[in-house]
């Protein structure tokens, strides 16, 4: 925020108060009359009012202020793609990692649990394989492939979003290797 005196030029060394939400930060204008602050603002996504105010000095400088709004957006998320294979009839184990779109860890995993859903495609619809809570950046799933058994399943991991993070979806493939030996029966017309 520049503080400028039209008669004397810049107004250095003058206090400026910034109010964001319910918090107020005070700074002093620099040698060219610019007042700025870079606070760590711990606000949830939503719209907020920003007010910058010069209180005046009680003598020559009159108070002035402006008010504006800004919006904190939800952070985008990325779920890892997981391709896996299992040897039937064992249980499949898949870990799905989730980060924000900059590769940083998801915050507040302990206080605001993030639920990840794992689904498989059956014809044109997705059906649930399970759900897991994100812990240390990943959700762990263990499941038996659905019947009737197929050679591969199209998988989808889904996070529906919450108050801080936006939704995301990733896809993968589960390949099933059936090592069960075939049973061969021969029926002879002769006894």
Summarize the structure.
The protein has no helices and 14 strands.
Can you put this structure into words, describing what you see?
Helix content is 0%, strand content 49%. With 191 residues, the chain is mostly beta strands. The strands form four sheets. The chain has a five-stranded mixed β-sheet, with no helix packed on it. It has a four-stranded antiparallel β-sheet with strand order 4-3-5-6, with no helix packed on it. The protein has a three-stranded antiparallel β-sheet with strand order 7-9-12, with no helix packed on it. Strand 13 (152-159) and strand 14 form a beta hairpin. The model has no long low-confidence stretch (mean pLDDT 86).
Keywords:
four-stranded antiparallel sheet; 191 residues; five-stranded mixed sheet; mainly beta; 14 strands; rod-shaped
User: Stretches where pLDDT falls below 50 for ≥5 residues?
Assistant: none
Strand order of the largest sheet: 8-14-13-10-11
Q: How far is it from the N-terminal to the C-terminal residue, by CA?
A: 101 Å
- Beta-strand share of residues: over 45%
Q: What is the C-alpha radius of gyration, as a whole number of Å?
A: 30 Å
Count of DSSP E strands?
14
| Helix-strand category | mainly beta
Largest sheet: 5 strands, mixed
């Amino acid at each position: 925020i520049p503080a400028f005196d039209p008669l004397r030029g810049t107004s250095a060394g003058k206090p400026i108060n910034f109010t964001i939400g319910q918090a107020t930060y005070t700074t002093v204008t620099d040698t060219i009359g610019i007042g700025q602050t870079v606070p760590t603002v711990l606000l949830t996504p939503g719209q907020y009012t920003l007010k910058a105010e010069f209180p005046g000095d009680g003598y020559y400088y009159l108070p002035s202020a402006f008010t504006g709004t800004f919006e904190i957006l939800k952070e985008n998320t990325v779920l890892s793609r997981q391709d896996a294979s299992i040897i039937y009839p064992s249980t499949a184990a898949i870990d799905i990692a989730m980060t924000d779109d900059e590769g940083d860890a998801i915050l507040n995993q302990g206080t605001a649990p993030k639920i990840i859903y794992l689904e498989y495609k059956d014809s044109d619809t997705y059906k649930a394989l399970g759900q897991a809570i994100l812990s240390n950046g990943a959700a762990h799933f263990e499941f038996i492939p659905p019947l009737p058994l197929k050679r591969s399943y199209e998988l989808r991991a889904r996070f529906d979003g919450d108050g801080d993070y936006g939704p995301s979806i990733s896809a993968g493939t589960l390949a099933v290797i059936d090592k069960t030996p075939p049973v061969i029966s021969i029926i002879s017309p002769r006894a």
